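#struct-queue
[09:14] JT: dropping the first one here, sequence first, then the structure tokens:
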Amino acid sequence: MKAILLVGTGGFIGSVLRYWFSAWVFRMLDKPSFPFGTLAVNVVGCFAMGLLGGIAAQRRFFDYEIRLLVFVGLLGGFTTFSAFAYETTSLLRDSRLLGAWLNVGLEVFFGLMAVWLGGLLSRLI
């Protein structure tokens, strides 16, 4: 039961942060037609996962319960892969093939790069 509460608490916080950050990007870019908010959330979330995951692996900094709260809950709630999938299919449905493929390519490339860079940075701090 404790694990469920930790994951749920982290997920709640992560989801609220995802909503706030994505909406902020949307407003800052003056309501773009491309889902830059989701892209930004995924890249930041992937970077945080790489950075904190690298620290956890190298320094054994996080115990099991903190990992549940932060990695499964908070970052799992913050990253928005489901929103990515929905928005990509919406672009496809609207016959915006280039936008859909651009979204897939950018999300995957920058997400992977952010995890790699986060892990690299974790070795330097």
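[09:21] JT: and here's the second one, same format:
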Amino acid sequence: MARHRKASLLAAGALLVFAACSSTNEITAQRSITEGSVDSGVGVGPGATADPGTSGSTRTVTTEGTRTSTGGAPVVPGGGPVRMGRGVTAGSIKIGFNITKNLNAALAAVGFGGPSIGNDERTIINILVKHFNDHGGIAGRKIIPVVFDDATQAQGWDALAEQACSKFVDDEGVFAAVSGHVGGTDSLLSCLAEGQVPLMQQNQWPYDGDYQRRYAGYLYQPSRMRPERWVPQYFGGLQEAGYFTSGHKLGLIRFDAPVFTRIEKMMRDDLARRGLKFTDVSVIRTPQSVNQFGAMAGELSSTILQFRSKGITHVVFDEYASIIPFFFLTQAEDQGYRPRYGFTSINLMGTLEAQHGKEQLHGSIGVSWLPGQDLTRSFRDDPRYGQGGAFEECFAIIEAGGYERSRIYDGTHCDSLFFLKKALERTNDLTVAGMQASAATLGTSYDSPYTWATKFEPGRTDGASKTMLMAYVDSCTCFKLRGGLRDAG
């Protein structure tokens, strides 16, 4: 495997996606849900049927049923009695947190080095939970944290997701779960939805409209953006920035899981509307575990030869969590191949600038909707710095707890808990169905610490609504913002 350079703290933290629980099977089993009164009428997407998978396993869920509170203040004053679902009592709400216990060990597994400051997710969660509980909790209830540390790298990602799900659903009966930034694909989501547990999902797997419909009521991405909205932003932004030069030849590198096939079609359609097209596409097997990165590196080496033979001058990506660019750019430099790249927030631009030099990144353009991970050199690079709001509030909480601020891990866990608080404190129906109905009424009112702006409405739980262009600047060897906010709907 090609050599790797050391990176900064935030780059190191971001790449831990490789070591966390994930899956490359969009649906691992036909889900069988026994709907109790706790969430009556809400399944894996109302009116939808999950695709049959290959494992054949099912989880039959039994619940305690919805309870009506006879004590304690209503969530919404004057709003009547409080309905409480599983994991909720008059005084507490149980929340699951899926994190990576030893980030440095995970880094070592992919041959990546970096300092350890700021990536202790457990400490960050402890600080946030204490702060929330000292200030009224969520919906007037103390948070009871249930933490799953996916510490081992020996197992496949599906197995880790199943273990986390079993703890949250079968053992602890949490109301909702929160994923860390380093999470993987769809295994945890599909299992939790089967167990009727909503997931605040912070990983980079590209959940498209199919997922949003199938898992309605169970998938929430407060600062993320579904492909149907980011694909036009991607190519529209690149075109606006002058990326598509005369005589260019555009190559796409993508993973082979079904969602990436769907995204490629979205990309082809969007390019066609702009009078553009791909010259060549390279399809890479989606890794099932860290152990498969060696084989993936071999495929990427072949891609370089393929693209060179076709004269590819510009390269874009259809992947997740910078897995492909992380390896591809290093190998490309080793082989003297230097195309012009187009990136999005999914490709973790802050990580790439720390890992690779200006020889590879010269002329690169990016489209950002996650400044919390794209702007990593300084907090002052973020236009929200010094403006108050959730961005400042999050870091103030962490620093007051005696820990050093970290844009990635502080921001994602703040985002999940801030969102839960916002959605659940607008309703007296503390059930899955109640949360779904409440979140649909948020509109543009939710202030996220991790994205530029948000918008929620019925059928939409991917909140990010604005993007900004970024351009790589050789003199600082970093990405800088370019222009103003762009409306992503």
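[09:30] RK: nice, looked through the second one.
[09:31] RK: Residues 293-310 form the longest helix (18 residues).
[09:31] JT: good to know. The longest strand covers residues 478-487.
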